[in-house]
Amino acid sequence: MPVLFRALRVAGASCLVILSAPLARAADLRWADFVAPATTSSGATVNPIALSEKPGDARLESLSVTDGLLQVTGRLGDASGSRWLTLGMDVAADAAVHPVDASAARHLRIRLAAAVPQVLRIRLKGPDRRILAAGCYPVMMQRVTTVPLDYMIPLNAFSAEGYCGEQGATVAQTLAALTYVEVTVNEPSPRPHVLRVGRIELVETGAPADGQGGADPAQPSASTPARHRAAKAPEPPKKAASPKPAAAPAPGHHVVCERNRLGLMMCY
Fold this sequence. Notes:
The chain is mainly beta. It has two helices and 21 strands. The protein has helices spanning 129-134, 171-175, and strands spanning 4-6, 17-19, 24-25, 29-32, 34-35, 39-40, 47-52, 58-66, 69-76, 85-91, 100-101, 107-114, 118-125, 139-144, 149-154, 180-185, 193-203, 224-225, 252-254, 257-259, 265-267. The strands form five sheets. Strands 4, 8, 9, 12, 15, 17, 18 and 19 form an eight-stranded mixed beta sheet that branches. Strands 7-10-16-13-14-21-20 form a seven-stranded mixed beta sheet. The longest helix is centred in the middle third of the chain and has 6 residues, at 129-134. It starts with a strand and ends with a strand. Residues 1-26, 207-222 and 228-247 have low confidence and may be disordered.
């Protein structure tokens, strides 16, 4: 039986505790719904990321939530000569950062947008500190627009970067103990970067995303929060009621992927 690695934070912010309890397991997982000021409905804190090889080339300016969309604003520049830089966020499934067994999932459904059309980098993270430090958990690139869309991304589009070699974690290894989902931008720009991230889910089937025959995202999701999946009770007959105001659903989008010059999957 797998052990549970608990309470690991990125960049050495906490310690690793090993418990002999099984990991949570569920086919469809609602990973994150964002609420103000910058947390999730399960109580997980959003971790902002602003890193660069040389000090000063990456700067976070603000982190906020409006209408269920987390907005990360900041700047990436290369004035100090950084060869790599990154701006964005990552988030766990709950406040205790419990690893989740998401190995039954086949797609990541994630709502994304940006101030201008651009490429965002999505990474799945596990609890191994050495792999985290090396940047060798699986990643893919997603091209997004200014309109929030629910992107249905096949999980087999994720892979470790080529330089990782044998140290790179496979997507199967990572999903067996998933701790964080990360979204970043990694290119310098003279203008501020603005990333928007909405509901994140891991789903077992390739059913249409919201807006393509799937459930209205303004309604309760068919998936349940990670680690709290319960049997569904029979529903009593519903009485007619006045509809409640709700945010408009985000259009759905099944992606098409191809490998880019870095050997990573670029999805559109």
